[in-house]
Design goal:
By secondary structure, the chain is α+β, with helices and mostly antiparallel strands. The protein contains 16 helices and 46 strands. Strands 19, 20, 24, 25, 26, 27, 30, 31, 32 and 33 form a 10-stranded mixed beta sheet that branches. It has a 7-stranded antiparallel beta sheet with strand order 34-39-40-41-46-43-44. Strands 13-12-15-10-18-21 form a 6-stranded antiparallel beta sheet, with no helix packed on it.
Length: 890
């Protein structure tokens, strides 16, 4: 129950950290547009970010200077042709370029000079390269083959060219409607998968830039392009109607290969009528179901210079899919991790069951021998029938096949009989743990013949959680697996059944994602998708991107508050207001639409507390809380962006919504919202719509309700976001922890006890519907581990962890806990363990930032900071490492 702490009025003061033996200042993590040395940027005003690494006491940047030019050697001598900021007396580490106009296709270098508190200056150089920047700079034509949209085989395209001079550098710029793989002289370029990322194709199309300097030969060269359908030509049928998308067509692409020679001349090899096309061995590919490959149709050497293409067809011109072809400046999808088969079971001479031992998003790769014409089917799924065979009935619920030629999550391989061969899909991914391999004739397979590849957007890891409680470690591992399994250039709900960008799932998981991973590039791209999809009246669809489905069902403030909640959280975590500014008009339109449609301040628009355990909350209650949150964010954004009239207007709206909500739902005398169930109590607390004078009583009643529910969850999607936080933030961290580590139904631990390696879509593991076994919708617990037992929070007054709020909750039943997060200024560590007669905390505050450490003081304990006694409950910490101890007196 609520701890009884002695509140000590504290004077705030800085304490010296543990000094390093010999501190040295270095500059690390120099990034442009949050990417390391990117090429192919379009933003004419790119952002520069960096970190200052220094373990010395109170390490701080006192000034910086940025020089930008095209000659790195000149920069070393302090000469900048493009931009010289001059020395800025500032501790900022996020600066937006505002020098001379940047030019397309140009490589720039930027030199960063930083002065620390000891007046020592350090420097480092990084680089970036601009891409097309404008549509007019494309020279290639959009081309495709002559086939119609219903033809299933994927097309090859090829072209040869000759270089007669020495190549200095070469870049390939490729845009596609659909998916592609690019090769030069027989070798695939890059290690990306599933390029380009999914967008609303008729409103925004992405292109990718590759450095192909080393791939170009002196003399004759061959370019190959293989096109897949992706979301552009969706041939599988399902309830989402992507097969009827307004943009649907045969895949198409545009390519410029820009070669710069040593003599300074430039030549562009471009897509056009001089290219040739033929059908590939990929006889069917669907982003939704699988890929079928007929090895008998292979064309060896099709993308090499000596291949005879006399029987290939001419290409046709196509119009560009949209008028907005822009750079894909984000972390790409990759095969991030290879996973060996854990066990294989031979069911009979033609059937094998491979188990990877964990649930993933991605593909399998099989290597095998067999007679020509042998058909091998690789069926992927998450669970087994009692007889040991693969069961996909939990994930094919929305599939509506027109015939039996497109089985769900089942790759089909036809062997050519020539030699041992390997197959891995090019243009598909799945959600699975098991692969059931069946063949038309007997084959011999062993465990090593099949591996899995965990595919997802390859975002850098920023966070870590370590606990003395094994169930917490399992839950955190499963949460991250589900988060990454649902990150494919946009956040999805599940990697198997839908792959849709459900907004509700994403707003729930935003903090979990940002604590754990460097996802800003993905979210900036996805919020651009939001701007593409928003109707003139402000309405957003429930899935983004969409073919048009979702404007009439599933949206509303509880789901599509992503337009406000995600930019706000990116601002908090990165200290960067660009996304907030980019989306400001859209947030405003959205909030204004709700205000105009529901002038009372209460809204019934939304899905409500999706998939609750048992108790159902009124949609009006939860949706109005989200409407309130949107209005609060909009008012704050207006103030941050200097829009004072809007700030006053939306501050008044915030008050109106709060008053209307509490007038209807709060029994102020009893301190109960609605009927007092968990979601009804926790959601108002979490979104801070509860009147100040009622918070303590409402929190107490929430705690009583949780206790009455046996310290188990009784919430759905929206309640899951709120419940642990509402308890922890209001004095009931012990109770929140007790709920979090439950091992019996319903709980996260119940899933873990039953072998889960990901999070599920429903609390019962034997539910009859909504039973995907890889969903992120209940993933807020990942963020809660950072915020409550870990105690790391951003401070909205100094966002981007410029100032860190540290308030770890030492809870009953947990002996030790550690979290770390790499913020914009470096690695933050919050660690504690229970020791004899007290608690020992180890804290790291990165250079150039500060922290406030809040801890409860009990009546009979002293507090020591690096050995010095203090009895303050609030301790200001400069950059450095600290040991803070709470010890019992005597």
């Amino acid at each position: 129950m609520r701890s009884k702490f002695l509140k000590v009025s504290a004077l705030l003061f800085s304490l010296s950290p543990i000094a390093g033996a010999f501190a040295q200042t270095t500059l690390t993590a120099l990034k442009t547009e949050y990417l390391t040395s990117p090429i192919g940027l379009d933003n004419p005003n790119p952002r520069f970010t960096w970190q200052m690494q220094d373990n010395s006491q109170n390490a701080k940047q006192t000034a910086y200077r940025i020089l930008v030019g095209i000659d790195s050697a000149a920069l070393l001598n302090g000469k900048a042709t493009q931009w010289n900021t001059g020395w800025k007396q500032s501790d900022l580490s996020l600066v937006t370029y505002s020098g001379q106009l940047l030019k397309p296709f140009t490589k720039y270098f930027w030199r960063l000079d930083v002065t620390n508190g000891n007046k020592k200056t350090v420097s480092k150089i990084s680089g970036f390269e601009m891409g097309m920047m404008q549509m007019a700079n494309w020279q290639g034509a959009w081309i495709s083959d002559t086939e119609n949209v219903k033809l299933k085989p994927a097309p090859y395209f090829r072209h040869t060219f000759t270089t007669g001079k020495k190549v200095k550098s070469a870049r390939a710029y490729i845009a596609a409607a659909g998916l592609y793989e690019l090769s030069i002289n027989g070798k695939k370029i890059g290690n990306h998968r599933m390029d380009p990322m999914y967008t609303r194709f008729d409103r925004r199309t992405l292109y990718v830039t590759y450095d192909i300097t080393e791939a170009i030969n002196h003399g004759k060269n061959a370019i190959g392009v293989l096109l897949g359908n992706g979301w552009y030509n969706h041939q599988s049928t399902a309830v989402w109607y992507f097969d009827r998308a307004p943009w649907r067509n045969r895949p198409t692409f545009c390519l410029d290969v820009r070669i710069t020679y040593n003599d300074g001349t430039v030549e562009t090899i471009k897509s056009g009528k001089n290219w040739k096309t033929a059908l590939s061995p990929i006889v069917f590919n669907s982003i939704y179901t699988a890929e079928h490959y007929d090895a008998r149709m292979e064309k060896p050497g099709w993308n090499t210079i000596n291949f005879d293409d006399k029987d290939w067809k001419d290409v046709i011109y196509r119009s560009a899919p949209s008028r907005n072809i822009v750079a894909q400046a984000l972390h790409p999808i990759r095969n991030v991790e290879e996973i060996a088969t854990k066990t294989v079971k031979k069911i009979n001479d033609t059937t094998y069951l491979f188990d990877l031992g964990r649930n993933i998003s991605g593909v399998s790769k099989i290597t095998l021998n067999g007679a020509a014409g042998t058909t091998v089917r690789l069926k992927h799924g998450e669970r087994l029938y009692p007889n040991g065979r693969l069961d996909i009935s939990n994930i094919d619920a929305h599939y509506r096949p027109t015939d039996n030629t497109d089985p769900f999550q089942t790759d089909i391989l036809i062997l050519n009989g020539k030699a041992k061969q390997s197959f891995m899909p090019h243009f598909n991914y799945k959600g699975f743990q098991y692969v059931e391999v069946t063949s038309s004739t007997p084959i011999e397979l062993k465990k090593e013949d099949l591996v899995g590849y965990f595919m997802h957007s390859d975002v850098p890891v920023l966070g870590d959680v370590k606990s003395s409680e094994p169930i917490i470690n399992k839950i955190y591992y499963a949460t991250n697996n589900s988060y990454l399994s649902n990150l494919f250039g946009y956040p999805t709900d599940c990697p198997q059944r839908e792959k849709n960008g459900w907004t509700g799932d994403a707003q729930i998981a935003i903090e979990t994602g940002l604590y754990g991973f460097d996802g800003i590039t993905i979210y900036e791209k996805w919020l651009a998708d939001h701007r593409d999809e928003q109707q003139p009246n402000g309405v957003l669809p429930s899935i983004i991107p969409t073919d048009g489905w979702g404007y009439e069902w599933g949206n509303g403030p509880d789901w599509t508050s992503t337009i406000a909640i995600i930019p706000w959280n990116v601002y908090l975590f990165y200290g960067d207001k660009k996304l907030l500014a980019d989306c400001y008009i859209n947030i405003k339109k959205y909030v204004d639409h709700i205000d105009e449609t529901y002038p009372s301040g209460l809204t019934t628009w939304g899905l409500g507390d999706w998939i609750p355990v048992k108790s159902k909350s009124p949609v009006e209650l939860t949706s109005t809380c989200y409407y309130y949150a949107d209005a609060v964010i909009l008012a704050k954004a207006a103030k941050i962006l200097g829009k004072n009239d809007d700030y006053l207007r939306y501050t008044a709206l915030v008050k109106k919504v709060k008053h209307a909500f509490n007038a209807k739902y709060l029994n102020k005398e009893k301190g109960i919202y609605g009927s007092g169930i968990q979601t009804e109590m926790s959601v108002p607390l979490y979104w801070k719509i509860v009147p100040e004078e009622s918070i303590a009583l409402v929190a107490e009643n929430l705690a009583k309700r949780v206790e009455a529910d046996g310290f188990h969850l009784d919430v759905g999607l929206l309640g899951t976001k709120a419940i642990l936080n509402a308890l922890s933030e209001n004095g009931y961290a012990d109770m929140a922890y007790k709920v979090a580590v439950q091992k019996t139904y319903p709980s996260w631990g119940w899933w873990m006890e039953n072998g889960a390696t990901t999070l599920y879509e429903n609390w019962p593991i034997d539910a009859k519907s909504d039973i995907s076994m890889n969903h992120i919708m209940f993933g807020e617990i990942g963020a809660w581990l950072y915020k409550s037992p870990g105690g790391i929070r951003p401070d909205e007054k100094q966002p981007g962890f410029k100032h860190i709020i540290l308030e770890p909750h030492v809870v009953e039943g947990l002996d030790a806990f550690e979290v770390s997060h790499i913020g914009p200024y470096g690695k933050i560590i919050s660690s504690w363990k229970k020791v004899n007669h007290g608690i020992a905390y180890n804290i790291t505050v990165p250079a150039n930032s500060t922290a406030t450490f809040n801890l409860p003081l009990t009546r009979d304990m002293n507090v020591y900071v690096n050995g010095k006694i203090t009895n303050n409950s609030k301790i200001d910490l400069a950059a450095g490492k600290y040991v803070i101890e709470q010890k019992a007196k005597n």
